[in-house]
Design goal:
- The chain is mostly helical.
- The protein has 26 helices and 2 strands.
- Strands 1-2 form a two-stranded antiparallel sheet.
- A hairpin with a 2-residue loop joins strand 1 and strand 2.
- The longest helix has about 35 residues.
- The radius of gyration is 27 Å and the shape is globular.
Length: about 600
């Protein structure tokens, strides 16, 4: 259809080259490229598939393995370095740095578990996995934040789709792993795939992800229609992966069959290119061609007198804008803000600085909720492989569990992102109360693990995966609504750092310690002198997940404080300020500029 439009225009190959350049350099292709980067940015969710290999090969106990898991979570949520690099370099530098870190970190882990290098010390392994997992933070800053700036009027949808793909990436990587290696008995190969795949995708799309200046904005409704195509395709991909999980559970697949499944996954990953990207860029290209050939006479009138060219713009001049504040004024304002940080905090919805947010009771509540709420779900996800092994699930089922967590993580992010927005606008349902309900639902998943109900681990994977994605989506939305958008990247990093703290306490000090204690008790009863601490049975994680349930319940009760404190804020029109800003910007954009003759 697009090709026919070009052929009908009579431009031939020149128009085809022009359109190709428009597509590759356009913001919609940048959205597509970010979509691909984020689809491989959630490799941290596959830790449960290869953690057993690290434990057995390097002779770790469960506490040491969980310490490794903590550094993985710390690396994935440590956004300070990527944020600083992003402030002074373009997005391609952020992505290339992240890709290099990803390859180095995971490749060193692969060399260690493959015994190709001398056995590293524990602190070295912690450093390697922290460096490798930090790619997720670089992808968030380099790809996701860039897309938000390219689609400022539709940032909610952009965040929902791209963050959802971080959750879905675990299932995508698992399918590709089976297609490449064909069996469940070589987790070392999965580590090598994680080292290479995200880095390769980032380098492939490096030069297409950049901040674009939007010359002529289309109506937001039309923009949303195109973005929803990305969403519908991602939902179809999630549904297909879910069907494949069920089929693979019932049947035994060969490598060729896994290859066919992976081919369909890749097809759906590239489907937005012909469905959304090329049609949108074609429309913009046609508009550009019309502007070049037929400038609107109502906006521009050219009078030629002698040798001089005079341009008269028929539309009124834009209103005079206030002069920018001088450096002295800015520094005085900054100093005043610093001195008044204790005396007065901005209203909710206004832009808070980092210091103002830190001294806010609302941020303290959110920090506690993230520690005990998200920390508990991270502990469950990181230990999923060991939980399944201790309860007697086969290796094939462990792959199914990881994929379930990944798919429902995606669905949690998308469902709560769009669902919370709908109930907020329609019923004024406060978003912090949704966070409370999510934490209560997570308690159900933890209890299913603690008491080992028949096939309960499958349902627990679904619930915990959904809650893990939903928590992140709601938490960062609440932060943006209460503390403003001006310093959102830094506040994003601040909120993300809370979850590894909870994971350290619940994962290392609780789950790891209690697992090793039970393993030593079982080995002493059997008279086994083997150095490998392997525990079997429901008691391995029972007490740990009862404690995690109590901690999550405590987090949900603390979140009610924020619900009470913000109930009047959410009853009001929290987006009124942004609509007024958009209206002012729209009035300014309606004033045309006068291009020079040289540009014609």
């Amino acid at each position: 259809m697009v090709v026919a439009g070009i052929a009908g225009g009579g431009g031939g190959w020149a128009d085809m080259r022009s359109l190709s350049f428009q597509v590759i350099t356009g913001r919609w292709f940048g959205m597509f490229a970010s979509y691909q980067v984020m689809s491989a940015a959630g490799a941290t969710y596959t830790f449960g598939l290869y953690s057993g290999t690290i434990k057995s090969t390097l002779g770790y106990d469960q506490t040491t393995l969980n310490l490794l898991s903590f550094f993985k979570d710390l690396g994935a949520n440590l956004g300070v370095i990527s944020g600083l690099i992003n402030e002074v370099t373009p997005p391609w530098m952020v992505l290339s740095t992240g890709a290099a870190l990803n390859f180095f970190g995971y490749f060193m882990i692969w060399l260690a578990v493959s015994l190709k290098i001398a056995m590293p010390k524990v602190w070295q392994m912690c450093l390697y996995i922290c460096i490798g997992a930090n790619f997720q933070s670089f992808a968030n800053i380099g790809a996701l934040v860039t897309c938000v700036k390219n689609f400022p009027e539709s940032r909610g949808v952009v965040l929902g789709v791209l963050l959802g793909y971080v959750g879905l990436s675990g299932a995508i990587i698992t399918q590709l792993y089976h297609a490449f290696f064909g069996n469940y008995n070589d987790p070392k190969a999965l580590i090598l795939l994680i080292a290479c795949l995200p880095a390769a995708i980032s380098f492939a799309f490096l030069w297409t992800i950049r901040i674009r200046k939007v010359i002529q904005r289309r109506r937001r409704e039309n923009e949303l229609k195109a973005l929803y195509k990305f969403l519908y395709i991602s939902l179809a991909l999630a549904g297909f992966l879910m069907i494949m999980i069920i089929v693979e559970k019932k049947l035994t697949f060969q490598q060729s069959e896994y290859g066919g499944s992976a081919a369909l996954v890749l097809l759906m990953l590239f489907l937005p290119l012909p469905v959304a990207v090329i049609p949108e860029e074609f429309k913009l290209w046609k508009i550009g061609q019309q502007v070049l050939t037929e400038p609107p006479p109502s906006q521009l009138k050219i009078i030629i007198a002698g040798d001089s060219n005079t341009q008269i713009c028929s539309s009124p001049l834009p209103p005079e804008s206030a002069p920018p504040p001088s450096p002295a004024t800015s520094s005085q304002s900054e100093a005043s803000c610093s001195s008044n940080v204790f005396s007065r905090l901005p209203e909710r919805g206004e832009d808070h600085t980092i210091r103002q947010a830190l001294f806010s009771l609302d941020m303290l509540v959110l920090f506690i909720v993230a520690i005990w709420g998200i920390g508990g779900t991270l502990t469950a996800i990181d230990n999923l492989g060991q939980i399944g092994t201790s309860l007697g699930y086969p290796q094939k089922s462990l792959s199914t569990l990881i994929s379930l967590v990944s798919i429902w993580n995606y669905l949690g992010r998308v469902t709560t992102g769009f669902g919370s927005e709908m109930v907020l606008h329609k019923y004024k349902f406060p978003r912090p109360l949704i966070l409370t309900l999510i934490l209560l639902l997570a308690c159900v998943g933890h209890l299913l693990i603690a008491f080992n109900i028949k096939n309960g681990l499958y349902f627990a994977s679904i619930i915990i995966g959904f809650c893990a994605g939903a928590q992140w989506s709601v938490l960062f939305t609440v932060i943006s609504e209460i503390f403003g958008l001006k310093y959102l990247p830094r506040l994003y990093s601040l909120g993300a750092l809370a979850s590894p703290i909870g994971a350290y306490v619940l994962n290392v000090r609780v789950a790891g310690y209690l697992y090793d204690k039970e393993a030593k008790r079982q080995m002493a009863g059997l008279g086994d002198d083997n150095n490998d601490l392997n525990c079997s049975g429901v008691e391995c994680f029972k007490l740990a997940f009862i404690i995690i349930t109590a901690a999550t319940l405590f987090g949900s009760l603390v979140s009610l404080i924020l619900v009470i404190r913000t109930r009047e804020f959410y009853k009001g029109d929290i987006y009124k300020k942004f609509r007024e800003q958009d209206a002012t910007a729209a009035e300014t954009e309606m004033v045309p500029t006068c291009p020079s003759l040289a540009e014609r």
